């Protein structure tokens, strides 16, 4: 998620955002828009973030970051253009939403917390190591399809590019010396 730094974030247009959420939950992206409108949130004097959207199922990157990651991220999904207010929809988009299409059944339901009704959010998620898609940069799980889970190697790559603009929260690790974040999806 974006860090709580001093920068502006993007809020996706509500109607299209609802279609995205519905598509993530059902797996049916037939009525998903080809692009997204968005508005900047925050003090206009602050800089615009390169990872500006905090919704867990809709990572948005600046075109610079999207271009740097394009080859690595293609294995799990695709980009959709995002046009912030005032942007020319005929020009090359300055931002892109990364639609993670790979859904992998890799959660251990006996050791994970029960998913919340409606969202599927789990406070504690434990993965089955034999089913974890380590080769993918990111994936979604059937229990909580509205969120993107990132593999460690992809998070490290994002941290190198985004630096302090990214807040990486550990959800799970085979290494018992590492402690998962107590609130991985919230504040």
Rg from Cα: 16 Å
Averaged pLDDT: 91
- Assign an overall shape: globular
Please work out how many helical segments DSSP would assign. Answer: 3
Structural class: alpha/beta
Report the end-to-end length measured between terminal Cα atoms: 11 Å
Sketch the major β-sheet: 6 strands, mixed
DSSP strand content: 15-25%
Count of β-strands: 8
Textual characterization of the structure:
Strand 7 and strand 8 (144-150) form a beta hairpin. Helix content is 19%, strand content 22%. The chain is of the alpha/beta class.
Can you summarize this structure?
This protein has 187 residues and is of the alpha/beta class.
Map the helices and strands.
Blueprint lengths: L6 E6 L1 H13 L9 E6 L5 E2 L11 E3 H11 L3 E8 L10 E6 L37 E4 L2 E7 L1 H11 L25
Parallel strand pairs: 1-3, 2-5
Antiparallel strand pairs: 1-2, 4-6, 5-6, 7-8
List keywords for this structure.
187 residues, alpha/beta, 6-stranded mixed β-sheet, two-stranded antiparallel ribbon, 3 helices, 22% strand
């Amino acid at each position: 998620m974006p860090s709580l730094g001093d920068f502006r974030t993007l809020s996706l247009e509500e109607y299209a955002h609802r279609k995205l959420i519905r598509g993530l939950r059902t797996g049916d992206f037939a009525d998903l828009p080809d692009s997204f409108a968005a508005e900047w949130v925050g003090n206009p004097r602050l800089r615009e973030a390169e990872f500006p959207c905090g919704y867990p199922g809709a990572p948005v990157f600046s075109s610079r970051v999207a271009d740097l990651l394009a080859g690595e991220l293609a294995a799990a999904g695709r980009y959709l253009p995002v046009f912030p207010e005032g942007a020319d929809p005929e020009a090359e988009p300055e931002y892109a939403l990364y639609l993670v299409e790979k859904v992998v059944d890799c959660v251990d339901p006996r050791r994970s917390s029960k998913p919340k009704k409606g969202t599927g959010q789990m406070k504690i998620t434990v993965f089955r190591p034999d089913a974890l898609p380590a080769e993918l940069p990111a994936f979604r799980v059937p229990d909580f399809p509205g969120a993107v889970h990132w593999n460690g190697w992809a998070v490290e790559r994002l941290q190198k590019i985004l630096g302090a603009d990214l807040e990486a929260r550990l959800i799970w690790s085979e290494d018992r010396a590492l402690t998962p974040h107590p609130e991985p999806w919230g504040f």
